[in-house]
Write a structure and sequence with these properties.
This protein is mainly α. The chain is 69% helix and 0% strand. It starts with a helix and ends in an 11-residue tail after the last helix.
Length: 606
């Protein structure tokens, strides 16, 4: 057979395959992404036709790629995302797993196959195009004045503060909710507890009391405003460093401008800068640590020879762990990966990370001792296990053996399963007898394990339902930013919006996380989407053999892993992703010679 005939046959096969995959994905997409099971709302519509045409073009372009390594990496990530999409959509639609039938199994397999091709093709094309762009881009010769000015630390700092001030005036005196009230009373009553980070409690409490004491009416608004101002300045300083870091690492000007104005103008960042909760400064410190990790691997561990860099890294890391308990958990989880990835420098890397942990323990212990702070309740570690037990009992009242039932009744003398809320474990934690859990925690864990062996599907359901916003893009959260002030007993906090229309805009954004007329903006506020981007960035780094990005991205995933065991899925727990990833992605677009410099012979620190 002539060669052109073979090529023609191959082209026809690819066209047919692209048509089938595009049609299947376009048909399945509305149902998989949140519509009611079996809905055909988009079937036969113009939107479905346009979507199918776009997917067909996507598949045809992907079929032209010949890089087998690229296709394997993109295909593997596509399969992972497809599985998450199909399973997550089922959990979202049924508040758990739907009924298992042969038809549902076939439907799931077809959906997984279709989305594997779609996600894999999209990733392959993005990775290929990204590689071509960075390979063709030339290293910087002379920098323009626009690049210098917009990447200057002071310019970005002033820009961020000026752009956030209107949001502050609209939401005056700031956003004071949730744990902030508890932390204020701990400071006010000098009754500290390590459940909340003591360092943040001291900062928040000091600002609040200073404002209250200097207000003629004893109003708390001045205290909230003072803390908000301090936090805005600190966060702007950290993000300005990140934007300056992008310039030093050769990120393209257009990418740097996009990230800078994203931080300055997008409501997500403006509103969180005003929130008086512990997660905001923690997120900024996570971003700073992540950038230091990139520099450490990028420069072949040479920063370990520089005392000033070591001091800065240790200070940032210890402050991060002191600002939120998730920081130390993530650092411990990252430890083996960081050491294993530090080829040729594992001993010194182990010493650096272990030293940070020891300093955290020393500083945290000294702070707790000086404040005579009580320890946090062990119930906090049982958020997911209690959810799993409660869901099991709610579905089957006889799921608990008689011996375990006695223990459960001691833990919950006023009932158990009625406190179960699928996306929030706080009611279960508040209703439990803390003393029983603290004294008999081993028995509680034993009961949890025994029930889980008999009901693994329900345990998986409970885990997925609560954590779906961390896993599936588009899944709803029960709490978002909540731009409001929670009043304190006996100390009024007067709210007054100087820009009421802007406040209404922010409240509307908080309701839907969308901006009318701006497509796809919902994804910029979606925690699961950022997790997917982080995983995709790891895959891209592996494909491009740019190993210096991977430790930083793995640390972000360690933060995510600790959040999966928390009491509720909240975007504020994941702010480190929202601050760090835009900066990392922009820097990954730098010319290849700047993004991945060749280490000089014998120049490493180890």
């Amino acid at each position: 057979m002539p060669k052109h005939s073979l090529l023609s046959a191959s082209g026809r096969s690819q066209t047919t395959a692209a048509l089938v995959i595009a049609a299947a994905a376009a048909w399945l997409l509305p149902r998989v992404f949140g519509l009611a099971p079996g809905s055909t709302l988009f079937a036969g519509s113009v939107l479905t036709l346009v979507l199918a045409c776009g997917l067909f073009c996507l598949m045809r372009q992907a079929f032209l790629l010949k890089d087998q390594r690229l296709l394997r990496i993109a295909g593997l990530m596509g399969f992972l995302f497809a599985c998450v999409t199909v399973v997550g959509a089922d959990v979202k639609a049924y508040d758990g797993f739907g009924e298992a039938t042969w038809l549902s199994l076939v439907d799931g397999m077809v959906s997984t196959a279709a989305f594997t091709f779609v996600y894999g093709a999209a990733l392959a094309l993005v990775f290929h195009r990204g590689g071509v762009m960075t390979d063709r881009a030339s290293a910087r010769r002379s920098e323009t004045w626009l690049s210098k000015v917009t990447g200057h630390y002071l310019f970005v700092f002033v820009l961020l503060v000026l752009c956030w001030i209107p949001a502050w005036l609209a939401c005056w005196p700031g956003i004071f909710t949730a744990d902030s009230v508890t932390q204020f009373w701990q400071y006010y009553n000098e009754d500290f507890n390590t459940h909340h980070p003591l360092l943040h409690t001291l900062l928040l409490g000091f600002c609040m009391v200073l404002g209250i004491d200097n207000d003629p009416m004893g109003d708390g608004a001045a205290g909230v405003a003072l803390y908000t101002l301090v936090q805005m300045v600190l966060l702007a300083a950290m993000l300005a460093y990140g934007c300056h870091w992008m310039r030093k690492r050769g990120a393209p000007l257009w990418a740097r401008l996009f990230v800078t104005f994203l931080f300055a103008l997008f409501p997500f960042y403006s509103l969180w800068a005003l929130s008086d909760q512990k997660d905001i400064l923690f997120g900024g410190l996570v971003m700073l640590m992540v950038l230091q990790l990139v520099d450490l691997w990028r420069e072949d561990f040479r920063p370990l020879r520089r005392p000033l860099w070591l001091i800065c890294f240790i200070l940032i890391t210890v402050l991060m762990t002191l600002m939120r308990n998730n920081g130390i958990y993530a650092l411990c989880l990252f430890l083996p990966f960081g050491i294993g990835w530090a080829r040729g420098c594992r001993v010194r890397m182990a010493g650096l990370l272990a030293g940070c942990i020891v300093l955290y323990l020393a500083a945290g212990g000294a702070l707790a001792g000086a404040l005579e702070a009580g320890s946090g309740s062990p119930v906090e570690m049982f958020s997911i296990p209690l959810q799993q037990l409660a869901r099991t009992v709610a579905k089957d009242a006889n799921a608990i053996a008689e011996d375990d039932q006695e223990l459960l009744e001691e833990m919950y003398p006023n009932g158990f399963s009625e406190y179960y809320y699928p996306m929030l474990s706080d009611p279960l934690k508040w209703a439990v007898d803390n003393d029983i859990v603290e004294e008999r925690w081993a028995e509680v864990l034993g009961m949890w394990a025994r029930v889980g062996i008999r009901h693994p599907d329900t345990y998986i359901e409970a885990f997925l339902v609560q954590n779906l916003p961390y896993i599936l893009p588009g899944a709803d959260m029960i709490y978002k930013i909540n731009p409001e002030v929670l009043q304190i007993d006996m100390i009024p906090i007067t709210e007054h919006s100087f820009l009421p229309r802007l406040r209404a805009f922010y409240e509307a954004y908080d309701d839907t996380l969308t901006i009318p007329g701006v497509p796809l903006v919902r994804l910029l506020s979606d925690t699961a989407f950022y997790v997917w981007i982080c995983m995709s960035a790891i895959a891209y780094s592996l494909y491009r053999r740019q190993r210096h990005w991977i430790p930083a991205l793995l640390f972000l995933l360690a933060i995510w892993a600790t959040c999966l065991l928390g009491p509720v899925a909240l975007m504020r727990y994941m702010l480190g992703f929202f601050y760090a990833l835009p900066i990392l992605l922009a820097a990954m677009m730098a010319p290849a010679r700047e993004a991945n410099p060749s280490p000089r012979e014998g120049s490493g620190a180890c």
